[in-house]
Amino acid sequence: MRYCKTCGIHYRTPINNCLFCNNRLEGKNLSDEDMEFFYPLMKRQHKPGKTVQKILYFILLVSSLCCLCINFIYMNASGKGFGLWSIYVVFSCILGAIFVHTFTTPSKFFHKVYQIGLCTLMFLIAIALLGNNYHWALDYVLPFGLLALNILSTCCIFGNKERLFEYSMYVFGTSILAFIPLLLYFLSIVLVGWPALSCCLYGLLTLFGLFFFSTKEAKEELKRRLHW
Q: What is the DSSP letter of 81?
């Protein structure tokens, strides 16, 4: 083993000069066998799942680009302007990529279900806003989707203090989002009021229950994450 007289540092590497003072090291270099003992060879593990994931991403990307090109070429040739049918395909491919990423990411089952549910809800609303008739999404899909996510979150933490501490941010965030349908109803964007009111009332009850039944640790963690 080589060492530096000035710094008093021992080196288990085959270098000749000290990394700090650049003086010549004393002693002998380690043999190849000793180097293998201190530095085992790194073996790269091949994961087939990563390859499949990249292939799926590539297929989704190529599909989106092909549809955009076909849409652009056809609409320019016909002289009718640029249509929006390719945007539906692009949004669908984005949702598919989110699904692939969610299922391949190592996380708990609740996190995956919640993320997929929220992304699906946003996808349906985006698809509806691209068309002429979007009231079916804002009047029914948005409030009932948020209501379902809120019920899912409260069911997961019901009767379990550890889950309450872990999933409190999900419950709080979904409960706040539950006020959006009612706000859209007051702005006359949503035409049907009872789904928005039901979603808002359940979110309000969930907020009261969260602060009333949660432990002190869960409240402090929630305040810390919200920077209160």
A: -
Question: According to the model, what pLDDT value does residue 123 have?
Answer: 92
Single-letter amino acid, residue 223: K
For residue 45, what pLDDT is reported? Answer: 59
d(CA 85, CA 149): 30
> Hey, what are 212's tokens?
């009333």
Q: What is the pLDDT of residue 113?
A: 87
pTM of the model: 0.67
10 has which bridge partners? 3
- What is the 3-state composition of the chain as percent helix, strand, coil, each rounded to the nearest 5? 70, 5, 30
CA–CA separation, 86 vs 69, rounded Å?
9
C-alpha to C-alpha distance for 215 and 213, rounded to whole angstroms: 7
Q: Which residue numbers in the chain have pLDDT < 70?
A: 1, 13-14, 28-49, 76-83, 158-166, 213-228
Does residue 176 contact residue 200 with C-beta atoms inside 8 Å?
no
Q: How far is CA 144 from CA 91, 107, 141, in A?
A: 22, 26, 5
Is residue 124 exposed (0-12), middle (13-18) or buried (19+ Cβ within 10 Å)? middle
